[in-house]
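Tip: read the tokens left to right.
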């Protein structure tokens, strides 16, 4: 059963809080079982009663998923995105912290640090650009700029077309959710077709509404961006309760914090986070408080 396509009754402010804070919680929940490869290992990471337990970063640290997005948020709040300055924000975090960076992200950030330019080639496409570009969805008042900006932000970390277009599709879906729309798969598909996305990626997204009873492969480990995109869109389209969708992610195991951040942001933008367990907010780290304050600032409160 798909999520209702009726306009979301949440206020824009609640959707922004859900989007920004949901990313932090999603990353922390994914991190709790991201290195688990069997059910026994997953069970050991759950709270008493079998409930998911977020794995927040150490005090003073930020996970890659939120640190990358925070850099873009800071640029947006400054009134415009300077890609060179953004890359310097990321490098500064990489030098001081670097928590949760996978090998692909580490290679991209090392190249930015050493050569002050994006890396020209990676062995495969990664999912970190999806998390990094997420805040672009807040700039939906200018759709063309939002789409171009998301793509260029993604390309700072991954030169592949696949990673860039997956990031753009997720950003477009997030922007639609922030506007109160719920049926976002057509929006993602439209932007992929308009940008001549690879046939494999287009087919994966088309399969989401064509086969609603078929859950796409869970994007474990080094799964490509296309796998992550199809899974994210399916979860948003056919899992009506955000907390249950995130629980399924935790119980699946192996999902990276960057993909978890994207799922948390999308579900938070769709439903808000008022119904999510309070323990998730307190257990995800200080970034929850900071992102909540930022959402209020964006709402002019």
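Filled-in amino acids:
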């Amino acid at each position: 059963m798909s999520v209702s396509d009726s306009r979301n009754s949440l206020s824009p402010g609640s959707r922004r809080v859900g989007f920004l804070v949901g990313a932090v919680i999603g990353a922390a929940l994914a991190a709790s079982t991201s290195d688990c490869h069997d059910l026994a290992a997953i069970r050991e990471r759950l709270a008493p009663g079998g409930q998911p337990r977020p794995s927040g970063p150490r005090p003073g640290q930020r996970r890659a998923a939120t640190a990358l997005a925070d850099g873009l948020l800071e640029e947006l709040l400054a009134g415009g995105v300077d890609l060179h300055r953004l890359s310097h924000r990321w490098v500064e975090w990489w030098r001081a912290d670097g928590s949760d960076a996978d090998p692909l992200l580490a290679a991209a950030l090392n190249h930015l640090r050493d050569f002050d330019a994006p890396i020209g080639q990676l062995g495969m496409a990664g999912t970190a650009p999806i998390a990094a570009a997420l805040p672009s969805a807040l700039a939906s008042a200018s759709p063309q700029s939002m789409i171009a900006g998301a793509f260029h932000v993604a390309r700072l970390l991954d030169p592949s077309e696949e990673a860039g277009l997956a990031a753009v599709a997720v950003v477009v879906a997030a922007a639609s959710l922030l506007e109160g729309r719920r049926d976002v798969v057509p929006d993602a598909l439209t932007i992929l077709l308009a940008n001549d996305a690879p046939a494999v990626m287009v087919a994966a997204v088309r399969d989401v509404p064509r086969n609603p009873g078929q859950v796409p492969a869970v994007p474990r480990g080094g799964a490509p961006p296309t796998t992550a995109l199809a899974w994210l869109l399916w979860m948003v389209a056919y899992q009506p309760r955000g907390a249950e969708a995130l629980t399924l992610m935790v119980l699946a195991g192996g999902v990276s914090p960057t993909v978890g951040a994207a799922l948390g942001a999308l579900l938070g933008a769709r439903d808000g986070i008022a119904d999510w367990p309070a323990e998730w907010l307190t257990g995800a780290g200080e970034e929850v408080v900071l992102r909540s304050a930022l959402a209020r600032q964006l709402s002019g409160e």
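The chain has one domain: 12-298. The longest helix spans residues 12-33.
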